[in-house]
Amino acid sequence: MGNAQSPCSDPRFASASRAFTQKGLEDLKALFASLAAQSQSNGHHISSSVFKAYFGIHGPLGDRMFDLVSQRRHDQKLTFEDLVIAKGTYEKGTKDEIEEFIYQLLDVTDNGIVGRSDVKAVLMEILDDILCQRNSVPGSNSHQDIVGIFLNAANFSKSNEGCAESSMSFEDFRRWCALFPSVRKYLGSLLSPSDTGRPGSHIPHLLHSENVESNSLLLKNEYAWHIGGALSQQELDEWKLLYHSAFNGLSFNTFLGNIANDEGPTVLIIKDREGYIYGGYASQPWERHADFYGDMKSFLFQLYPRASIFKPTGANNNLQWCAVNFSSESIPNGIGFGGRAHHFGLFLSANFDQGQTFSCTTFGSPCLSKTTQIHPQVIECWGVVPKGAQQEKHEAVKGTVLERFKEDRHMLNMVGLASSSE
Questions:
Q1: Radius of gyration of the chain (CA)
Q2: Cβ distance 56 to 194 under 8 Å?
Q3: pLDDT tier, 96 (very low <50, low <70, confident <90, very high otherwise)
Q4: Are 304 and 277 in contact (CB under 8 A)?
Q5: Terminal-residue alpha carbon distance, the chain
Q6: Which residues face 293 on adjacent strands?
Q7: What is the rounded distance in angstroms from the CA atom of residue 62 to the CA atom of residue 53?
């Protein structure tokens, strides 16, 4: 099988090989043999076009990935040793090794500088990929707008000699990944086959009634992808619209009534009069409490004019707030996240006409809007339907009906009416 069985003098190959089980290496050999055969190289190497087609990586990002995996030889030939070294580093290396690989991946122009144009090209390629099944036009103007929003949360603080434009340092990159976990998920899973549903490429199906037009919703597919970066794969199946102020009115009671039958997590999104869009992921149902409750799965996020996610820091347990019909001034009526009473990370009053957002240690988040006092213009709430939950609910209902049928049959038999009822 050519290079797959030849002696190797590269110590990196020996080191990377130890990261795999014997079966893992055999599987890699079989993959290499298959792709090399498609490359018509007599089993010696994998071509760039076959590599990119198999892993589903195209454009500048695909070129850069092939360049890195083939050890930057620029000979358009990927050997078995290259594949083992790359996968050993990229998938089984230390956290620092993996993130250094991904950071280099962003340098699509291969000039040693991760500039804004590099990151923009990568984001455009990602959006083209994940949205291709949603009939979006590759490179569309909407992509341009969204990419700008995603880039607004990134820093480019590194000065480069002879270059007027600052670039993204490795520390800038790591901070951006913390605020934007979807991009880290996606770029960290590119050497998985594209048809396996790799992490970072999923957008939940957004379900809503037919009378709700998609262009009237705050939650776009791109935003759902961004928020989903902080969630598990099981939570990225379906999200259903439970409440929308344009259709249900700015009513706290209607909001609570609409979500009362939904026991799962929810995504709350607000657009205020300043045009800022932000919200929070509530891991627990919205239920009446006199104090903070919830767990460390909750988080805050921004969607516009920048896109960021703020997960719990562990500084305190002041995660969710839902107070209804309390007369004490120390217990503000409404819903919120983080901070403390009267100084929340995000809060909506029970009248749904005003609220607040302060920087808070609970999530390490800044003020999410232009000012700390907010006036909601649009409020949406989506219910997260974990994968398999609908089927389990159907089976539970079916089981209940069958049990009731059996009980009814039993009662009829006891009184001797079962036969006559047929």
A1: 26
A2: yes
A3: very high
A4: yes
A5: 71
A6: 320
A7: 9
State how far the alpha carbon of 25 is from the alpha carbons of 19, 81, 119, 188, in Å: 9, 11, 33, 20
Is there a contact between 82 and 46 (Cβ–Cβ < 8 Å)?
no
Q: Which residues contact 387 (CB under 8 A, 6 or more apart)?
A: 233, 234, 235, 236, 237
Detail the DSSP E strand segments found in 102-185: 158-160, 163-167
- Token pair listed for 401: 């009906």
DSSP secondary structure letter of residue 267 = E
CB crowding 253-287: b at 16 or more within 10 Å, else e: eebbebbeebebbbbbbbbbeeebbbbbbbbbbbe
Residue with tokens 């759902």: 224
Kindly report whether the peptide bond that precedes residue 199 is cis, defined as omega within 30 degrees of 0: no
CB atoms within 10 A of CB 168: 24
Domain spans, the chain = 2-196, 205-385, 395-422
Q: How far apart are CA 78 and CA 83, in angstroms?
A: 7
pLDDT tens column, 191-225: 987 776 788 999 999 999 988 888 899 999 999 99
The one-letter amino acid code at 348 reads L
User: In the beta sheet, which residues pair with residue 356?
Assistant: 347, 373
What kind of fold does domain 2-196 have according to CATH? Recoverin; domain 1 (1.10.238)
Report helix, strand or coil for 338. strand
Q: If you average pLDDT over every residue of the chain, what do you get? A: 88
Q: How far apart are CA 295 and CA 319, in angstroms?
A: 7
| Residue 194, token pair as written in the block | 């594209």
- CA 22 to the chain's CA centroid: 33
Dig out the tokens for 149 from the structure: 């929003």
Q: How far apart are CA 140 and CA 148, in angstroms?
A: 13
Residues 241-258 have pLDDT tens digits of 999 999 999 999 999 999
Which residue, chain included where needed, has tokens 């516009």? 304
**Reported pTM:** 0.86
Q: Where are the alpha helices (DSSP H) in 249-388?
A: 252-259
